[in-house]
Write a structure and sequence with these properties.
Layout lengths: L7 E4 L13 E4 L31 H4 L33 H4 L11 H13 L5 H20 L5 H21 L7 E2 L8 H9 L9 E3 L1 H12 L3 E6 L6 H9 L4 H6 L1 E4 L10 H5 L2 E4 L13 H20 L4 E4 L22 H12 L5 E9 L26 E4 L5 H4 L6 H27 L14 E2 L4
Parallel strand pairs: 4-10, 5-8, 5-9, 6-7, 6-8
Antiparallel strand pairs: 1-2, 3-7, 4-11, 9-10
Helix pairs in contact: 3-4, 4-5, 12-14
Function: Esterifies acyl-group from acyl-ACP to the sn-1 position of glycerol-3-phosphate. The enzyme from chilling-resistant plants discriminates against non-fluid palmitic acid and selects oleic acid whereas the enzyme from sensitive plants accepts both fatty acids.
Subcellular location: Plastid, Chloroplast stroma
Keywords: Acyltransferase, Chloroplast, Lipid biosynthesis, Lipid metabolism, Phospholipid biosynthesis, Phospholipid metabolism, Plastid, Transferase, Transit peptide
């Protein structure tokens, strides 16, 4: 993803007549902004998936469920070699051919030496900024080391194939920038960015030491989606890879949810050159981060206007029903505590939780708010502190990961004894956060504590649905 960290944003206006927000509406987000310039004639590079995952191809019965939102067929996310995009007709192009055809610099690479020579060549030609080139080299080396850690006998082949695909997409975006709309739909053709993202992150996940908590509740969500209900996942947020990790752990049993999740995305994941290719493959509601709203005073009003538009897009989306939306109401990625160095879910922002709840309640279709916990910071940990500048150092490793969901929490039931409306908001937010923390601790015990399935509790039942 993914993908730089999630973020919060502040919107300063009213909403459409059917839904009113306060003058200081605050919203929190997590996953990837820019306008799409596709690649109509670029042959798709085969993307190799790691044998570390035993995930099987998605069943047709699961992926063909009838939902009110679009269910157009798409390639299996566990496909090893996606179809060659050169076979796609030029009619799929939405932009000038000369502006969108990718350079062959990286696609023609046959070795690691070719890749680095290509980076050097484009820098010398003035086609690639030096800072982006340095990031490319750093990511290549770190990704290589991480995949080799997996012990996969095809590690070197996987690294070369996946890195060629990534560097080609990064270079294409440098020369022909993609611009995200407030509501971005994953680009699946002529180049399948979703499959690309899945195959890139897959070799980094130690599936033997990864777990899903309460799989029956994820299945329950799919049933509610089929009935036209909306699902909101209030979640902690750890890494740029969060969207891919969620999808990878669910794709074998619930490919529809894996592919159709919409992520509320902060602006950094849609502006960082090394994040954008992953973000293009996800469904997003794009906003400007609250944490970076004031970085450039000249852009504050533009950002606020864009965020208002994004909120309207969210409202329109939910009015259609059958939507599943992931949001991190902490306003950013989790980070280790200063004293203990232990990772814990970052506190949820009350305003963000309440605004999302009201959006759901006023959307029309029934809506349900589920607390979701994610543990995957080892795979791609964020910087220890929030940074202003785009282009953070990418640390990458091979590690187990986990997600868990708890039963939906009803605002009216959770706050039945609260007479003060402000107190009710606090109680509801705390109930969601406490559930996320409880689930996170179970995942932590299973993965970091090496307890595996024995870490299960009466509240969180662990499984490995890809087996």
């Amino acid at each position: 993803m993914s993908m730089t960290g999630s973020s919060a944003y502040c919107v300063a206006h009213a909403f459409p007549p059917f839904f009113r927000l306060s003058n200081k509406t605050m919203f929190l987000l997590s996953t990837p902004p820019t306008t799409f310039l596709p690649t109509p004639t670029t042959p798709r590079v085969p993307l190799l998936s790691s044998t570390a995952s035993s995930s099987s191809t998605s069943s047709s019965s699961s992926s063909s469920i009838s939902l009110r939102s679009s269910t157009a067929p798409s390639p299996s996310c566990s496909s090893v070699t996606p179809k060659d995009s050169s076979l796609v007709s030029a009619k799929h192009s939405h932009t000038n051919m000369s502006a969108s055809v990718s350079s062959r610099t990286f696609l023609n690479a046959r070795s690691e030496q070719d890749v680095f020579a290509g980076i050097k060549k484009e820098v010398e030609a003035g086609s690639l900024p030096a800072n982006v080139a340095a990031g490319m080299q750093e990511v290549y080396n770190n990704y290589k080391n991480a995949v080799i850690q997996s012990g996969d006998p095809k590690a070197n082949e996987i690294v070369l194939s996946n890195m060629i695909a990534l560097l080609d997409r990064v270079f294409l975006d440098v020369t022909d920038p993609f611009v995200f709309q407030p509501h971005h739909k994953a680009k699946r053709e002529p180049f399948d960015y979703y499959v690309f993202g899945q195959n890139y992150i897959r070799p980094l996940v130690d599936f033997k030491n990864s777990y899903v908590g309460n799989m029956p509740l994820f299945i329950e969500m799919e049933e509610k989606l089929k009935q036209g209900h909306n699902i909101i996942l209030m979640s902690n947020h750890q890494t740029e890879a969060d969207p891919a990790v969620i999808a990878l752990l669910l794709e074998a049993r619930l490919p529809y949810i894996a592919e159709n999740l919409t992520y509320v995305a902060g602006d950094r994941v849609i502006t960082d050159p090394l994040s954008k290719p992953f973000s293009i493959g996800r469904n997003l509601i794009c906003v400007y981060s609250k944490k970076h709203m004031l970085d450039d005073p000249a852009l504050v009003e533009m950002k606020r206007t864009a965020n208002i538009r994004a909120l309207k897009e969210m409202a329109m989306l939910l009015r259609n029903g059958s939507q599943i939306v992931w949001i991190a109401p902490s306003g950013g990625r989790d980070r280790p505590e200063a004293q203990t160095r232990e990772w814990v879910p970052a506190p949820f922002d009350i305003s963000s939780v309440d605004n999302m709840r009201r959006l759901v309640e006023h959307s029309g279709p029934p809506g349900h708010v589920y607390p979701l916990a994610i543990l995957c910071h080892d795979i791609m940990p964020p910087p220890l502190k929030v940074e202003k500048e785009i282009g953070e150092k990418r640390i990458i490793s091979f590690h187990g990961a986990g997600i868990s969901v708890a039963p939906a929490i009803s605002f009216s039931q959770a706050t039945a004894t609260c007479e003060n409306p402000e107190k009710a908001k606090d109680v509801f937010t705390k109930a969601l956060y406490d559930s996320v923390t409880e689930q996170y601790n179970v995942l932590k015990s299973a993965i970091h504590g090496k307890k595996g399935f024995e870490a299960s509790t009466p509240v969180v039942s662990l499984s490995q649905p890809w087996k």
